[in-house]
Structure formats: structure tokens, C-alpha cells
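Hi there. Long-time user, first ticket. I'm pasting a complex I've been working with (about 289 residues overall). I'd like to know whether the download I got is complete or cut off, because the file seemed smaller than I expected. Thanks.
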Amino acid sequence: MELKKIIDKLGLEVASAAGGVDGDVKGGYVSDLLSDVMANAGEGALWVTIQTHINVVAVCSLNDLAGVVITSGKKPAAETIAKAEEEGVTVLLSEENSFELVGRLYKMGLRGKER
Amino acid sequence: MEVTTAEEVHVLALFATLADAGEMQGKVYQRLQEGENDPRRFGYQVIVDEHENVLGMNERLLLGATDMDVGTTVDYVHRYGGLAVASHVDRPAFSCTSQLGFIPPGVFDAVELSPYGKAEDYADCGYAVIRASDAHRPNDVGAAFTVFELAAPTFEELKMALAAKDGRHVAGYG
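Hi, the file is complete. Here it is re-exported in full:
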């Protein structure tokens, strides 16, 4: 599924488009433990989390994720966005909580993508 | 050393000797997520001696977490003769507060505040409170510190101060 389509349909705010928004999203993964995402999120997955720490960017980069959606209206620190721009990671923001957002992604046809 | 538990809580582990710390390091490496560091993404993990000579690189990815929960981690620290301190409990990431929502009682030897934390806010937490720099760069070392009343600057004395034994205690912060 095209990332652009998800951004438009769910009204996501683009905090960093460094990883591109035209790419293909191969599935989804939701977790707030970085180590769990590192171990389990598959390549090309869109990651949904309330984490805003700078290491979120490192994990996206490490697992070659399609991007990350930070939910519940949480705002990442400036250093997180700066790192995302540097690493080429797309960071999206949503006012909705993870449950609502994942429900909508699932309804759009996106499915869990694990390693 | 600072250990990341399975809940992604950071726990400071302080040891009297390098040998004791080495025992803990062995345990951590055994239980740490697999992976190799990519310096382009995560920066260099340099091994430096006391004269600031770079001796080599640590190839293991140190960003991840161990699969030991907080209780197990603290048990190992104690088994190897160390002191276990809950790291930067005032911070919104990788702390007891952020990961568990509370500071579990009767587990640690002390709690640590970052330079942002105020000791008076944690006066009732049930633990000795120390303040430290949580430095990630050499320049940040000493950004905050704790003053102890001790008979000598030794590990045993520090242990007594954290337990407020025999007149040893935390005397102030800077």
C-alpha cells in the first residue's frame, strides 16, 4: 500500500519526509518497546508507537521500516526529527491513539508484518 | 555500567572492582539482543583506555535490551557484589517511571535523578536519592553530582551511605 495514501486517508502530519512518502508499505507493526520492534518488525512495515525518543529513528533505520507513526498527539523532540532527516526516516504524527489508528489501518487493508 | 532491562528500564550497576563488573558484563552479553553495530547509523562504540587512546571498537550492537526483567537484573547486580540504582527516574524515556509507571519498592539500592530532577520531589520515594549527569558525552560529565558524608571514598562507604548506616548519608547535591 502506498504510504502517501495512508497519510492522506488518515490525515497524518508529516514531521519528517526524509524517508520518502511515495514508498510501498508492506504491513504494520505496533509496539512501544524498541527492542521488541528491533526483534520483530519486518522490513517495509509501518510502525505505530507512542515512543518519541531519538532511538525510534535508529530502530526504523535498522529494520528498514517504511516509517513510524507517533500517536496520541505526542510530539517528538527536535533532536529526533533532526536525526530522522539525517537518517532518511519518515516520521508521521497522529492525534489518535494507537488502537484507533491501527484499527483504521487494518480497515484499509494493511496487515501485521513481522520478520 | 548501565543495563537495559526487558522492560527497557535503565539500571545503573556499580561495582567495587573491574572483575565484578566483568562478571556482570558477561551476563549482560549473554542476555543482550543479538546484532552488530553499524557505526554509520548508530555512531562508533569505541573502546578507550585511561589515557584516551582508542584501543578498538565494540562490534556488538549495544542499543538493544537484555531479556532480563528489572528484578532479575538487580538480582544479578547483587549476586556479583554490586549496587543497583534506578537510572534517571525523572526522565520520560528508559526509566522506571516511564516504562513501569512507578518505582518498585524494595528492589534498588538507590534512585538516580538526571540534572533536570529535583531531589525534594523524590523525598518520599523510599530510596536514597542521588543526582548524576547521565552523561552521553565527555563534556556532560559533572553536569550534576551528589555529595556523600563518608569516612573514606570507597565502595563500601558508598554502600553504607545509600543505606544511611552508621552516620554515612547523602549530604547534598550540586
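A couple of notes from our side: The helical segments of chain B are 18-31, 39-42, 70-79, 96-100, 155-162. Chain B is about 25% helix and 20% strand.
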